[in-house]
Amino acid sequence: MNIVHSRSGVTKQGALCVISREIQESELNKFYSRLIKLLQGKELGHETVDSLQRLHLILSATKYTRTLPPELQKRLVSLLSSPVEQLQVLSSAVLRETLPLSGQELNYNQENIGQLNSHAAALLLSQAGSRADLSSLCAQLLRSLESRQSEGPAHCLTHTLPILNTVLTHSPESLTEDHVTLLSKKLVDWLRYASITQGVGASSGGFFTGPRSRQPAPIAELDGTVSGDFFTVLCVGQGFTDDQWMNVYSFSMLRHWLLTYHSVSNGNTTADTANRLQLSLSLSHSHSFSYDDRSEVDGSVVSMVSATSSSSRLLPPKERLREKAFQYCQRLIEQSDRKAHKKTDTDLQKACLVEAVCILDCVCVEDTSLVFRTFPCIKGLFGRLSSDLSFARVLLPIAQFYLNHGEMAAVDCESVWNLVFGRFPAELFNDHFLAHELLRFLRLNLESLQLRVPQYTHSFPNLLKLLAWDSPALVDDFVDLLPSLVTTGTAVELLHTLLDLPCLSATLVLQLRSVCLPIADPGGRGLLSLDAFRNPSFRGLFLFLLRTEAGSGDTIDRLSTLHELLAEAADWPRVVQCAQTVPVLLHIFFNTVITVADEKLLAHLILVMLERSSLLLNIPKYCREIHRVFSCHLLRLCKLHPSLVVDQSHELLEFAGATANVYSKEEIYTHVVWVLGEYLSVSCDSRCSVSLITSCFEALEAVLFEITSSAPAPGAVCAAPRVITTLMSALAKLASRSHDLIPRVSLFLSKLRTVTRGGSVAWCSDEDDLVAIVTRGEELWSLLKAPGVAQSVLTPPPHVTTPQWHRDINVAMPLRLRALTNLTHSQ
Fold first, then answer.
1. CA–CA separation, 451 and 634 (whole Å)
2. Farthest CA pair distance, the chain
3. What is the rounded distance in angstroms from the CA atom of residue 178 to the CA atom of residue 143?
4. 438: closest CA among 453, 458, 417, 452?
5. Which candidate, 546, 511, 578, 506, places its Cα nearest to that of 426?
6. What's the pLDDT band for 12 if we cut at 50, 70, 90?
């Protein structure tokens, strides 16, 4: 089996993965030897890279962790410091799949910490055995930050902060308070006091090359003007100094540091005593006030937007970092107003604005005194950007700032929420990234939005546009959000809106096509729905679907017309995907509404279900699923509140008395009939009179007689056996409560028995189904011969059905039943 020389693509990689699990040890040793020879060569070419990739695949596909030969292990460790990053990545990946040899664990001390890069650090972190190991590593890394360029390699600094950030992410308790103090001071130094001159580029040489000709130029702003303030990530130049690069790294991890440095260990017990002593000495030596004074004078030009007073230098490290972060972000906001020459710089401005506003939010959460200093800047930024939706990603963090601090600052936030809940979903519904960020913002702030932002609960017609456009990606978000949108004031309109979601999806497609396609396109296929969308006489129907807030009405009168106009959209992929999410959301809606609604609202919802069961966009599977959901929750509502059946008896009887519903709405019709037979009783509601029972009986009797006395219309299917048996049971239940009706039921059941003796009948095509119907009829007929028994069997009182003694494990009846079962059944 040759595992070295085959050159395979992605299709062969799975096969190689299987082969690697079955490779013999002798073949593996030959592969190791060949790889060692390759690594001993001066040129590490494509064959070496290919072999390392194969080795990684073999090791990762093996169930148990392997130990490599010492020579190979040594060679792989040396590759971690290779100038070729691909070799660093591969060697780190391979070593993470192996066990380190005894005494050969990767170890970096203060002398060689400068060789540490991000890939070696990933390996080092994976081999850390305890929190103490991580704490010791952090101490070494932080001490390396204290070294000057003459004392050690400066390039290691660019790897140090990402490593510390990784430790902070996965094990913040590994850092001690001393670590936090030192790193906070270093971040202040890099953020606020980086060089204000450009880094010196490589010299071209020549006779006239000298110190005077290589004088560094000052840094510039994105608009090309010379910078008059301290260095930030939005400054440009031909080259950058090491401390300017550290400024960029510091800003990239600043927000994460501000959010998580509270989780560090309060005690210093995890760090080695010698390390702590040396760290304390380095702190007192390097971060005295004289060093801060030097930074204040020599490290920067005095800021034109926020000059630091001498009192700020007396602040504790954390507070001083917050102050410098505040100044840095204020400067970024000022820089973002400059006109960049390149599109990439414009994108960088937007990204930095997002980060700056988020950092300002963090520092204001920690120190509320900064809120009043920050709000004028944030308010001005919102005023400048709010009219340009290309800055939508920046405006969301601004909205977060207003939500967190607007009440404290007593500012009017209405314009912010009109933008977030109005223009964003209405105009940017097809921006997938913004949709994700907006819904994430809503989920993270759900409780605050419900309490402080009244526009939120009334914005669901607009927010649901995001779901209508991209249902598969966003349905999970709306599963979390939908319960918060269900209130007594929005429930009815929200139910209609959910049912119209496929129509909304089609309308959004038409809206975009209407803008993109010309009115007359002779070469294109005409869309009747697009013509209807542009037709002024139908404009009101589509505008209602595209409304931005609730309150303009629960639904529209011409829904059937709208469905006809959108008939060709029933098979559009986006519409079909949207329709598939509606049943899930309806279950969540009904599960929530029963917790907030009174009986009056629930009665209204029952009417909506009956009405909308025939007013749905004609997608057959969608209609069946909606009917199934309606049936499920109709039973649940009536079980919780049986009086609803009497309250809505007129509408329920009207629905049950329509024979057409037997064929077109079998699922929901069956359940409506069952509800009428089950809960139309004096025991459920004292208002239930004999006349009401009689009128219900007559309506159901007429339907049952019609469907069992004649064949269905040509092309139509026979009535479902379940519908027939449910109608018979409902009639028997009603007759048991009004004995005058028993002869009428008995007469029908006896006729049914007589008719079926002759064999097949026109209204039932399946012989087995007919047998089941007749059997059910005979059971009911036998029960009705004894009216007292029939009522107790068909409608048992609650004290009989509720306890369910045969299932209660706290009583002896289940045990007795099991014992009797064992005695009566052969072993």
1. 31
2. 123
3. 11
4. 417
5. 546
6. very low
Q: What is the pTM of this model?
A: 0.81
| Local structure of 236: helix, strand or coil | strand
3-class secondary-structure state, position 176: strand
**Phi (first) and psi of residue 305, to 5 degrees:** -105, -25
Q: Of 490-494, 814-818, 821-825, where does the model show the most confidence?
A: 490-494
pLDDT band at 291 (very low <50, low <70, confident <90, very high): very low
State the pLDDT at residue 597. Answer: 92
CA distance 156 to 114: 5
How far is Cα 257 from Cα 162, in angstroms, rounded to an integer?
A: 11
Spatial separation of the C-alpha atoms in residues 395 and 419, rounded to whole Å? 9
Contact indicator for 479, 582 with CB cutoff of 8 Å: no
As beta bridge partners, residue 764 has 761
In which residue are the tokens 């119907």 written? 773
Check pLDDT > 90 for residue 517: no
Sequence letter at residue 807: R
The tokens of 701 are what?
């009797």
In contact, 560 and 538? CB cutoff 8 Å: no
Give the burial class of 820: count Cβ atoms within 10 A of its Cβ; 0-12 exposed, 13-18 middle, 19 or more buried: exposed
285: helix, strand or coil: helix
**Do the Cβ atoms of 78 and 113 come closer than 8 Å?**
no
Residue 645 class from Cβ within 10 Å (0-12 exposed, 13-18 middle, 19+ buried)? buried
Q: Is 768 left (phi over 0), alpha (psi -120 to 50) or beta?
A: alpha
How many other CB atoms sit within 10 Å of the CB of residue 302?
A: 12
Instruction: Give Cα 79 to chain centroid, integer Å.
Output: 40
- The rounded distance, in Å, linking the Cα atoms of 209 and 789 is 115
Cβ–Cβ < 8 Å for 759, 787: no
Segment among 272-286, 573-587, 717-731 with least mean pLDDT: 272-286
pLDDT at 76: 85
Tell which phi-psi region holds residue 180, choosing left (phi > 0), alpha (psi between -120 and 50) or beta.
alpha
Residue 507's pLDDT is 96
Q: How many CB atoms lie within 10 A of CB 173?
A: 16
User: Residue 716 in 3-state DSSP?
Assistant: coil
Q: What is the pLDDT of the chain when averaged over all its residues?
A: 82
- Residue 262 CB neighbours (<10 A): 10
Query: pLDDT at residue 467 above 50?
Result: yes
Give the tens place of pLDDT for each residue, 353-388.
999 999 999 999 999 999 999 999 999 999 999 999
Q: Is the four-CA dihedral 511, 516, 519, 522 of positive or negative sign?
A: negative
Element (H, E) at 100: none
Which of 13-17, 253-257, 444-448, 654-658 bottoms out in mean pLDDT, i.e. has the lowest? 13-17
Q: Quick one: which H or E segment has residue 248?
A: helix 242-260
Dihedral in degrees, nearest 10, Cα atoms 166, 171, 172, 174: -110
- Measured at the CA of 536, the angle between CA 534 and CA 539, to 5 degrees, comes to 75
Contacts of 351 (CB under 8 A, 6+ apart): none
Helix (H, G, I), strand (E, B) or coil at 764: strand
Question: 268 to each of 264, 356, 589, 741, how far by Cα in Å?
Answer: 10, 33, 52, 87
In the structure encoding, which two tokens stand for residue 803, read together?
């306890």
- pLDDT above 70: residue 211: no
DSSP one-letter string for 206-228: -TT--TTTTPPPBPB-TTSPBP-
Highest mean pLDDT (candidates 58-72, 264-278, 405-419):
405-419
| C-alpha torsion sign, points 484, 400, 260, 93 | positive
Q: Hey, which residues does 699 pair with through a beta bridge? A: none
Q: State how far the Cα of 694 lies from the Cα of 389, in Å rounded to an integer.
A: 64
Do residues 796 and 733 lie in contact, with contact meaning Cβ atoms separated by under 8 Å? no
